[in-house]
């Protein structure tokens, strides 16, 4: 007769625990993936509406006479929006002398670094043993283990 084995102990042997260098590589890779996702411009920015679509509000307002529609300043703010990199580059060209964004520095904080939950963003007190991510509650730990913990490591 075979001895029974605890499922919890068996699962513990299967978990990988990453060292600090592997955790840093994983964190950098995740940040690069987020930057790739965030960099793209809006694909619908240059979308032109079809002229065949009826304009109900315009016909109710005008009652026969056509009024030229003017574009607000908000339209141009959205249409010609600049990225953060473009704004920093522009500032350095306009005002190369300090103080500017590139020359701004602050001393290190006197307070310890705050730790936040990787799932919900609340302050966290606990750390995942395999990957080192922070979590604040059992619910967040469950979400982390189901969806994030060591899923996309290479």
From TrEMBL:
Q: Which GO terms describe its cellular component?
A: nucleus
Superkingdom: Eukaryota
* Ribonucleoprotein is among the record's keywords: no
Enumerate the InterPro entries for this protein: Vps71/ZNHIT1, Znf_HIT
> What GO annotations for molecular function exist for this entry?
zinc ion binding
Q: Does the keyword Transcription apply?
A: no
Listed Gene3D superfamilies: 3.30.60.190
Protein name listed in UniProt: Zinc finger HIT domain-containing protein 1
What's in the keyword line of the UniProt record? Metal-binding, Zinc, Zinc-finger
Pfam families on file: zf-HIT
List each copy of the HIT-type domain by range: 117-149
GO biological process, any: chromatin remodeling
